[in-house]
Amino acid sequence: MHKKYENRILLVDDDPKNLQVAMSILRDYNVIYAQNGDKALELLEKNQFDLILLDVVMPIMDGYQVCSKIKSNEKTKKIPVVFLTVKDDEKDIVKGFELGAVDYITKPFYSEVLLKRVEVHLKLASVMQELEHINKNLNQKVKEQVEELRHKDEIIVQHSKIDAMAAIIDVISLQWKEPVDKIRLYLQSLDFKFADNEDFKSDNVFKKTLMEVKKLDEIMGDFHKFFNNHKNKEDVNLKVSLDNTLFSLRDEIDNLDIKVNIKGNNLISLNIVFDEIKHIFNKLILKSIDSFKSTNLVTNKIIDISFENIDESVYITYEDNSDNYDEHQIKKFFASPNLFKYDNFDLGFYLVKVFIEKNFGLLNIEKTQNGIKYSIRFDK
Questions:
Q1: At which residues is 4-aspartylphosphate found (predicted)?
Q2: Could you give the 3-state DSSP secondary structure of residue 123?
Q3: Most buried by CB count within 10 Å: which residue of 85, 243, 279, 323?
């Protein structure tokens, strides 16, 4: 039979007349009764109840003993217990509260009193459950925010260390780069001078040397870019910086027939050094290009980039569908700083993470069903 209220109440009393009267008064609720403590505990193990009305004076196991067992059980200890008693002795009432009861009702029952007490305690229990749920969510939110602040504190410490050594290393990187540039220029001149020499053309050692010098030159460029603190931050339009990057890589993108989709707010700006945000876009796109080159499985090559401005944060989402990544590889992309020990370490790509954290941003990278996804967040 459908009841007016959905709440489930356990009524425990050894007197059939009391049970009959109480159940008549509480006819609009879902009431299940038990005539002894053992039966009550058995019902509690098998059912969910919102409130327990518990008689104090019962044979074998009295209400106090039953209440003590209810409150010592993790499953049932939060269910509110209201004692039913003919006693009005102050010590008996206090004992009930000490055992964990929330109230008591004296017998014989008065309809209005019983109904109001039940209504009040059901509402209180509902409010307590809601508060517990809110508190649990709040604790989780606080935990997440504390973790985020801890991560940002680590970034600040790293940033201060970088500032302390940047001036010296900036000079060193420039001094290294100058002779490397000259060596590359000399090798290119030799390559042009002996281009018609058959022995020279068949000598792969020279070409490999030129390739390695070029690679070293790129590394030094990235290294210098990282420690060059002379440029100031400015309000950079993300779409403009992305377009600038795409223009420089247009030939490679077209040759591979990659479709680039740009979504979101094209007017979003970020206070950052222009070269840093351009470097981020450049290296992400180059990583996708290299991945597309390494697979023949993808015919419809796609890069999706979106910009969002939510509250006080800017979100950049970058995805490709190259389907050429594995979990182990992804973990190595930005694992710091031991990556320098691994083969094929890409300093320029690693600087993506460095520049994001340098500007107090957060980076998350994950493998998707068809490729890879980078989620970047900058707080204003």
A1: 55
A2: helix
A3: 279
Burial class (CB in 10 A: 0-12, 13-18, 19+), 90: exposed
CA 289-290-293 angle, to 5 degrees, is 85
Structure tokens at 316: 């950049």
**Class of domain 8-109 (CATH, top level):** alpha beta
> Can you give the pTM of this predicted structure?
0.48
Residues 118 and 128: their CA atoms lie apart, in Å, by 15
Tokens 């002894």 found at: 36
How is residue 109 annotated by DSSP?
A: P
End-to-end CA distance of the chain: 59
Distance separating alpha carbons of residues 182 and 177, to the nearest angstrom: 9
Q: What is the pLDDT of residue 219?
A: 64
Q: pLDDT at position 373, please?
A: 94
Alpha-carbon span 132 to 57, nearest angstrom: 33
H or E segment and range at residue 366: strand 361-367
**Segments of 14-102 assigned E as strands:** 30-34, 51-55, 81-85
d(C-alpha 289, C-alpha 304), whole Å: 13
Domain spanning 231-380: CATH 1.10.10.60? no
Q: Give per-residue pLDDT as tens, 250-264.
A: 999 999 999 999 999
Beta-strand relationship, 259-264 and 234-237: unpaired
Residue 149 in tokens: 């602040």
Pairing relationship of beta strands 81-85 and 103-106 according to DSSP bridges = parallel
β-pair partners for 234: 272
Instruction: Determine the Cα angle at 68 with ends 67 and 71, to 5°.
Output: 85
pLDDT at 44: 93
